[in-house]
Specification:
Blueprint: E1 11-16, E2 24-29, H1 32-44, E3 60-65, H2 68-73
Antiparallel strand pairs: 1-2, 1-3
Length: 81
């Protein structure tokens, strides 16, 4: 998946476990550079799942640009983690 590197709205670092249907947002950043650093850290030291704290099973990490509609709906008013 090609990521747009000049997105004015920010980026989401998301993961998908084996057998899961969609991606789960794990972290939000304003810059692509921050998203790449966060993703590298999560690959080296895998965190636990946000919802219930279980150990992630072979997660696939991706960086997804935040859409204008998400900003309009208030994505930055939520907890950043």
């Amino acid at each position: 998946m090609k990521t747009e590197m000049n997105n004015p709205y920010g980026y989401k670092v998301c993961y998908k476990e084996d057998g899961a249907k969609g991606y789960t947002r794990h972290f939000k950043t304003y810059t692509y550079r921050q998203a790449v650093k966060a993703k590298a850290g999560y690959i080296r030291f895998p965190p636990r799942a946000r919802e219930d704290g279980h150990i992630l099973k072979n997660p696939k990490w991706v960086i997804i640009p935040i859409k204008r509609s998400e900003v309009r709906d208030g994505i930055w008013h939520e907890d950043p983690f």
